[in-house]
Amino acid sequence: LEFNSAGQISRTKGRRLLLLNDRVVCVTVTGRPSETDVGNNNQMERLSLKWSAHVSEVEVVEGTSTGTLARLTSANTLTNPKKTSLGKTNSTANSTSNSVDKQMAENLAQDMGDLMHDFDVVSRINSMIGTLKCSYPGLTSDSMAGIMDQIQKSIRQKDDEMSWLDKSCLQLVVKRKDKAEPLTFQMRSPAVKQDWVVELRLARLALDPNNSPGWDILEHTKSITGRLPLYVKHLSCYHSETKNTEIVNGTSYTLLVPTPTRTLRPVTYVWANATDGISSHIKIYSVQVNQQIALKDLGTTVLSSCCARSIVYVPGTSGGVAQSNSDNPLRTDLVWIATDDRRILLYAASDPEKGFEVGRIVLPVDPSCQIYHCGKVFVGLVNGSVSVFRRDHTVNWDLNNPQNIVLGSDPITCLIPISGALYASTGRKILMLDAWSNSVVRSFTANLEENPASTFQGSMA
């Protein structure tokens, strides 16, 4: 897409972006039906090179409205001024598909402009109805309010269509010698654009010198079971001048956050617990995905008199949509923090930077681990029992009446969820619990290493 100084689409060109291991290549597809044999359906496409650049010279522009339909709606007319200098060669700008894409964008912008104009006119008419001296059938404030509601619904529908089209726009900045050239491409859909951006980011990471060992594969390895991890970067979570600290646990989750245009945007949050053995500093980040994955610091929750032993995200009843329900906070998305002073602190998962505590649980002994599984929260205790918390008939969490399951006398060291059940370890015993009935299904005993022939002994409970 090419834009003029007013942000209007001045011309469209057919292009194809090819992402290689280390280069981005832009080509045109030639070989129109009139130039090929109509009877031969196996005609190969002919690609003509327009430009190429190293992946390190291509950056994706995120979070900007330049060149999108939002700019078109602010323009008074939709004309075709002189063309910009993004492309130096001729292209199939007058082809049918390109004209359709351009016309669709212009029609959406024009329809939105017309709806906003009509809404303004009807609003003024509605404000003037009260000054009429006589009454007229059909000309009432209620009828005008109904028309305004219909226009508002049409505006929201057009806004969704424009948002979908805008999210399909891929905006790149290509560094060439001493200047950077902006380019805008209209992809087939937002999903196609996102996949392309992810692949570009992975290609940049793979070429980073820090990831050079990732290319080495042992000769005797016949197959690769999974993708090798790529190093992105590191950052300091918390630094103490007098004590050594380490990150021992944390959690992450994704919520759908409403935007000003009433659409839902997925936002991923990360909670990391840095402790010095006496207190905990829980850092909260939001994940930003541009050229690389970056963590934006949202704030810190300090537990000065205790350490967090476990942090788990517990989803609410809104289906992943972020909400702040002050009347029923125990129905919303929560983060449960188990501490070493016999407590579990419950924080609101939405707007985590506010550090809003919605409740707390006092346990009989210290907690050691916890998981959310099958709509319940299982908390392992140091006395060898598991406390199970569930929702009551009001769909709020019942924090005062957990079910207690005694599994042994040693601390519960680990809880692992599986389909419909979970594994719990206490001492040398590994037990399987039914997640719905909270009963012990089977148990295993781990033997000492001196007897390698029989590592585990199993028994049905």
Please describe what this structure looks like:
This protein is an alpha+beta fold and 461 residues long. Helices cover 18% and strands 37% of the residues. The protein has helices at residues 69-73, 96-129, 141-167, 190-206; strands at residues 2-3, 9-11, 16-19, 23-30, 46-54, 58-60, 169-176, 179-186, 246-258, 264-275, 280-289, 293-303, 308-314, 334-339, 343-348, 357-362, 367-373, 376-381, 385-389, 403-406, 412-418, 421-426, 429-434, 440-446, 456-460. The protein has a five-stranded antiparallel beta sheet with strand order 21-22-23-24-25, with no helix packed on it. Helix 2 (96-129) packs antiparallel against helix 3 (141-167). The longest helix is centred in the N-terminal third of the chain and has 34 residues, at 96-129. The N and C termini lie far apart (68 Å).
Q: How would you briefly describe this protein structure?
A:
By secondary structure, this protein is α+β, with helices and mostly antiparallel strands.
